[in-house]
Each structure stands twice: as C-alpha cells, then as structure tokens.
C-alpha cells in the first residue's frame, strides 16, 4: 500500500508525438471567394425589396419616425440602413465586416424559394 502513496515520475516515460497541424485552415478570404460576397452590394441593390415586420419598442419607433420627419431620410428603412452602415464602418474591423457579409449572404440564401 505504501507503494501506491509514493509519487512516481511518469512524466519522463511519456512520449509526445510531433505537433499535429490541420491540412486546411479557415481563411475568411476563401469564404468570400466561395460565396461571392464581394458582389453582395450589387446584389442587394438589384434585388426587389420585400417588406417584413421588426418588433421594436414604441420609443424607438418614435425616434425613427422623428428622424424621417426632420428629413434625415425618406423612410425608416433608409434611416436604419444609414445607421447600420455608419456603425459597421465605425466599429467593425475587417474580419467582423466579412463575417457580417457572410451571415447576410446565408440569410438571403435561406429566403430564396427552392425550385
């Protein structure tokens, strides 16, 4: 029983294999090329705009409508689009912008009807 309590130096008998590296690594630029995200802006402008409902607080709705009323934009969609563009340009780095575009592309593909 005393042998069980003695510490054995097992570290010296442990052989480590060479470092394992993946064959392929993730590269955001390859995803860009695969999904054609560089054309996302052109596709967005060419698509007919469909309407949907987004639930927001009454206070936020009033703020958006006030911005339209004072002439910031012609409608609430444009106000939100301006705000999103400004936020994206001011606060997201290059990789986050690519991720955003990738997610937008995925969401848009989900909306397309299957033939």
Which bin fits the share of residues in helices? 55-70%
Q: Number of helical runs?
A: 6
Give the strand content. Answer: under 5%
Described by its quaternary structure, the protein is single chain
> Sheet with the most strands?
none
Query: Structural class per helix/strand content?
Result: mainly alpha
What string gives the helices and strands in order?
Answer: HHHHHH
Model description:
With 115 residues, the chain is mainly α. It has a domain at 57-110. The protein has six helices and no strands. α2 (28-35) packs parallel to α6. The N and C termini lie far apart (73 Å). The mean pLDDT is 80.
Compose a concise summary of this entry.
The protein is mostly helical. Helices cover 57% and strands 0% of the residues.
Secondary-structure topology with pairs:
Blueprint: H1 2-5, H2 28-35, H3 40-46, H4 58-69, H5 76-91, H6 94-111
Keywords:
0% strand; DUF5388; single chain; 115 residues; 6 helices; 57% helix
